[in-house]
Amino acid sequence: MLVKLEKILETEGAVGSFNVVDLDMALAIIEGAEELKLPVIIGIATRHWKAARGQLLAPSILKAIEKASIPSVLHLDHSGPKEEHIVREALDSGFTSIMIDGSKLPFAENAAVTANIVTLAKSYGASVEGEIGAITGVEGMVDGEHKASESLFTDPDEAEKFVAGTGVNALAVSIGTAHGLYKAEPVIQFDLISALKKKVSVPLVMHGATGLSDEVMRKTIRCGIRKINYFSGLVVEAVESTGRYLETAEKPDYVAMRKTLFDGWKKLASGQMKIYSLK
Q1: Which member of 3, 60, 143, 162 has the greatest number of CB atoms within 10 A?
Q2: At 150, is the pLDDT very low, low, confident or very high (cuts 50, 70, 90)?
Q3: If you compute the radius of gyration of the chain from its CA atoms, what whole number of angstroms results?
Q4: How confident is residue 207, by pLDDT bands cut at 50, 70 and 90?
Q5: Confidence (pLDDT) at 69
Q6: For this structure, is 77 an active site residue?
């Protein structure tokens, strides 16, 4: 069933937000969530909007979400300050959640851009996630290995002011994670998460989950994270599953290979969702 972002984040644990690039990937994640009886967020990264044919893909995902027995959200991830046209296309396509990322702009410009998208999204009845403090790496790309930048960590006082001034429904924060793959185990700022939780009135979002240990993941949630974005691991799984299938199949068959990918995505996403739920 389709619900608003803020409704789905009313939980003791965190909800997984999985970016997808095709329908099979989305269906695998939704099926896993249904079996676990856990809510889920299906996202499309703005940088994939054209390649994934977002306006054609969205109706199929929406139909799957509407038929699902668990609360779900369709989310546009990391739209930039100059990508309002994609935000409008997503909203017209039925998306119920938009992330606007102005984190690389000065504070006042970020707040102004974000507030504008909040006004637009709310005219459609959709929710908005903003970002304050920048997360290194590029969302939707597994092009290398990244590490977090301490100079870009989120300031709790700025975060409080940002939320109050923009009206966002969730806030992505920089607490030691990075997009893509890590060079080494990241140093997560747990005390910073706790401080942000005390200052910020909306759910906190963590991007860059691929590569974090289960123990670290659970600790971030206990400190206050309520939405976790996950993508790079799904892409790595797709490549590795394809390689394993081609190595072992006596007579490769495309339909059978798709089933291998589906099962791999479902298993991986289900494992992440179990961790996020703290069960």
Answers
A1: 162
A2: low
A3: 18
A4: very high
A5: 96
A6: yes
**Helix, strand, coil shares, percent, the chain, to 5:** 50, 15, 35
pLDDT of 144 reads: 44
Model confidence, pTM:
0.93
Interatomic CA distance for residues 114 and 127, integer angstroms? 12
Are the beta carbons of 75 and 95 closer than 8 angstroms? yes
Q: Where are the domains of the chain?
A: 5-276
pLDDT of residue 146: 45
Write the pLDDT tens digit of every residue in 74-114: 999 999 999 999 999 999 999 999 999 999 999 999 999 99
The DSSP code sequence of 204-235 is: EEE---TT--HHHHHHHHHHTEEEEEE-HHHH
pLDDT at 143 over 50: no
Residue 224, by phi and psi: left (phi above 0), alpha (psi -120 to 50) or beta? left
For the domain 5-276, what is the CATH code? 3.20.20.70
Task: List the catalytic residue out of 22, 24, 77, 191.
Answer: 77
Whole-number Å distance between alpha carbons of 89 and 144: 30
Give me the pLDDT at residue 209, please: 86
In whole angstroms, give the CA distance from residue 231 to residue 179: 9
Structure tokens at 249: 């199949």
